# Entry
Amino acid sequence: MRAAGGVQQQFRGGSRAGCSPGCGGAAEGLPFPVQSCAMSETGGEETGSAEASGFSDLSDSELMEFLELEDAQESSASPGKPGPSSELPGKDGKPRSLQNCERGLDISSPMQRFHLQYLYVTDLSTQNWCELQMAYGKELPDLVTPEKAAVLDTGASIHLARELELHDLVTVPVTSKEDAWAIKFLNILSMIPTLQSEGRIREFPVFGEVEGVLLVGVIDELHYTAKGELELAELKTRRRPLLPLEAQKKKDCFQVSLYKYIFDAMVQGKVTPASLIHHTKLCPDKALGPSVLSHARRGGFTVKSLGDLMELVFLSLTLSDLPVIDILKIEYIHQESATLLGTEIVAFEEKEVKGKVQHYMAYWKGLREPRGVDIEEAWKCRTCSYTDICKWRKGGGVLSSTLEPQPKKSNK
# Structure
């Protein structure tokens, strides 16, 4: 949904959000979750966007479903259909090469090359599937087919419908990236007391520094069980009425483990405002826009700047007695019938998670080149959009810089 001026962003809190300990707000709390509408300031560059807000995260697995063997076995080859070229037009219409993607150590780190201030949880979980595919996706994001995009849209619609079961969404215009992050902070401030009073929230933003890199994401759902345990429930919708392969489950399990890793650090006071400001380059002293301030006041929060809100958020996280997550659960739902296909309970192994994070972050920091899949998982390549240009396949499992990109041969 679009509004005049830019992209929307919403408050995502509970219907009865109150003020958490230490916030200094009124008891009435935020009456609804709100979405911001990013706008450009007069005479300046565009400052607010979905990317700038810091919490957008692909929370579903539909795209990966296309990369599984079960789909590959049923798909037939289309010899007349052109594949991706090794050199595709960039934004300026000129060809762009993949050499930068595969020779990153000679130029800059991927974080610098892709102009990233932070990573999404799904960036790391996609590395768990195929790191090189993820790298190609950053370099050539336009290769997502309309069919894949349609499936992703269906999954997003299902997530939105579930969110609307708990609360309505209200749009708020923003004028800067500070405003966009302020909306997210207001959402957190509304969700914490809602979780405590009503026992369930959805679309909870998480963020934290991991191995020197800021990692952000969105938890599908948090709720308390009958035993009083805090459970994370991740929804994964499926295009076909089948459970995913073990390789897909492995990726999903790593994703929810990362959510717990970050959330636990947030409620334990291990995430600091200084770290967030350092990575995002936010200006905490910048005055918030009038629309954001208006909605903050409606929630009982007397603030003027992003720094004021940040102080309330970090106090609320540490003083509200939120526990760490006890249970990690993944629910697989069939898109068309909404039938529950199965549930996966994930055992959190902190040492294993830390080891994987260190390995994946080494790529983002430019300490090593990206790797493709091992020979045992070469079946993943069958429906990959980047098969024709993948040097890992051409090099027999070695990313050789001596292999130059070659255009796909004509079928004439």
Notes: The mean pLDDT is 73. Residues 47 and 176 are 5 Å apart (CA to CA).
